Amino acid sequence: MFPKPEAHLKPNTYAYESRPMVKPTGFREYDARWLFEKEINLMGMQALGMGIGTLMHERGVRPDIVVGHDFRGYSASIKMAVINGLLAAGINVHDIGLALSPMAYFAQFALDVPAVAMITASHNDNGWTGVKMGINRPLTFGPDEMGRLKDIVLNAAFTLKQGGSYRYVENFPDIYIKDLTDRAKLKRPIKIVAACGNGTAGAFAPRILEMLGAEVIPLDAELDHTFPRYNPNPEDMKMLHALRDKVLETGAEVGLGFDGDGDRCGVVDNEGEEIFADKVGVMLARDISAIYPNSKFVVDVKSTGLFNTDPVLKANGAVTDYFKTGHSYIKRRVTELNAIVGFEKSGHYFFNAPIGRGYDDGLVSAIAILDMLDRNPGKTMADLRRDLPKTWGSPTMSPHCDDEIKYGIVDKVIARFQDMKAKGEKIAGHAITDLITVNGIRVVTEDGTWGLVRASSNKPELVVVIESPASEARLHEMFKAVDAVLRENPEVGAYNQTI
């Protein structure tokens, strides 16, 4: 009988090597994320594999699963521990080896396999690990599946069976690359910088973009799991600034930055301006809705208000639904509404038929951006950016807040803003006109300026985003006012970055 996991074990002890350790907070809303060796050990990852297999049996899913891993020094060993657990649960494992997360999602379709477990910490710092999972393509787990998986694993309530098998799928990246490149080439060799942050995308992104006819200048594309310059995170200003500098140095038409597992794409235009992913989403929505009138889009609550107010989108009959932040939430909503694309401010884009298969793929996003430039030969990326109505927006800013208390803090912040609105109090000198609570709280004022506070779904942090269509001064005023409400809670720590 496999032991029940413990929340904490001391490393370099007999117990640590003999019992599974799984910290409960690693089961997040839609992903699993832990600090490896501090919050989970290899036996804990084996327990997770048993739990995934047990859940598949419970839900009546055919016992076949795709497994892959990202480029970190410990990901391959973690993957094998998960595979051991899956095999013990009688699951047939299809191992695609080193992979991007979207490559694993694609494998579900290419290999006709219902489930996926991708070993990745995405853009998190080294030391983190995690699993992106799904048992109903193209969807990944939501709170229901994560909650049940947590119960199974922490209680060691495993259904173990004979009959599991292991298959290594040799050269699978070639199948993925052929799927993306078996199409018409770009009309001209668009000059791009492809920044990979020394993460997994470096093995694939430059090659794919070159095969499409782009002139590619790789940046930090050599695989190096120490991430010597910065984390591969296209929301991180260090990565964006490095991308900006290379674009200006080389005269590239656009800079594309990929995160650690390749499901996100960040953008710098030809003038070195970092374009936040929600604004790129508006540009793509304009382009796509011109081809497919009356398109339906889904965006997360961190995203710009332009999706609702942009005159071009209105003229094209586009309709936008604002929904919860999180790749699993937006992916699910896109499928439910049969939207053509879902956009997240973090850079997760979910292209549905006829463009994609409904899951997030940074390479598909990059190709959509190149196609947009190809269809607008008389305009630069900066021109397309300037065509948008002007707003001033913050990056995603994350103050530290422990996993155990972050949702409670957000509840207090929601209550505080609701009380302010009920009493007619102003924020940053302006009346509160709307409070959107689909995911945390988005406080909207009379001039359209808004501020969002929510709990991070995958790290011990809160998330703060501010936007103003009025002025940069209003952006800063709103940030100070929202931060002042946060600071009423001393448990909230320092930001990773601010404006």
TrEMBL record:
Gene3D superfamilies: Alpha-D-Glucose-1,6-Bisphosphate, subunit A, domain 3, Alpha-D-phosphohexomutase, C-terminal domain. Its cofactor is Mg(2+). Keywords: Isomerase, Magnesium, Metal-binding, Phosphoprotein. CDD domains: PMM_PGM. The keyword Transport does not apply. One of its GO terms (molecular function) is metal ion binding. The keyword Magnesium applies. Pfam families: PGM_PMM_I (PF02878), PGM_PMM_II (PF02879), PGM_PMM_III (PF02880), PGM_PMM_IV (PF00408). GO terms for biological process: carbohydrate metabolic process. It comes from the Bacteria. PANTHER family: PHOSPHOMANNOMUTASE (PTHR43771), PHOSPHOMANNOMUTASE_PHOSPHOGLUCOMUTASE (PTHR43771:SF2). Belongs to the phosphohexose mutase family. This is Phosphomannomutase/phosphoglucomutase. It comes from Pannonibacter tanglangensis.
